[in-house]
């Protein structure tokens, strides 16, 4: 079948049945499924930015010993 053999309705259709004889219910189920897949979109949501609290370069290692709790608040 060439483009000249199709009607304007067939050219606008989202899909067409090329083999078999589906019922109206089967066509409706296929239409709903295809519409849901097309409406879902393929774009994944943007990842959330990572918190600076989990950045290892910004965290200083803890050193145990006398007065360590006092030194933990001092700037480096």
Provide the fold topology.
Layout: H1 8-12, H2 24-40, H3 68-71
Which features does this protein show?
76 residues, mainly alpha, rod-shaped, 0% strand
Share of residues in helices: 25-40%
The separation of the N and C termini measures 77 Å
Mean pLDDT: 78
Give the topology string: H per helix, E per strand.
HHH
Shape: rod-shaped
Number of helical segments with 4 or more residues: 3
The fraction of residues in strands falls at under 5%
Structural class: mainly alpha
CA-atom Rg in angstroms:
31 Å
Count of DSSP strands: 0
Extract low-pLDDT stretches. Answer: none
How does the major sheet shape up?
A: none
Describe the structure.
- By secondary structure, the chain is mostly helical.
- It has three helices and no strands.
- The chain has helices at residues 8-12, 24-40, 68-71.
Please give a quick description of this structure:
The protein is rod-shaped.
């Amino acid at each position: 079948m060439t483009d000249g053999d199709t009607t304007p309705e067939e050219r606008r259709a989202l899909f067409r049945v090329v083999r078999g004889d589906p019922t109206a219910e089967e066509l409706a189920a296929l239409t709903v499924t295809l519409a849901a897949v097309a409406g879902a979109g393929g774009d994944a949501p943007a990842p959330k930015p990572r918190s600076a609290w989990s950045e290892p370069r910004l965290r200083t290692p803890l050193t145990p010993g006398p007065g360590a709790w006092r030194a933990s608040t001092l700037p480096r």
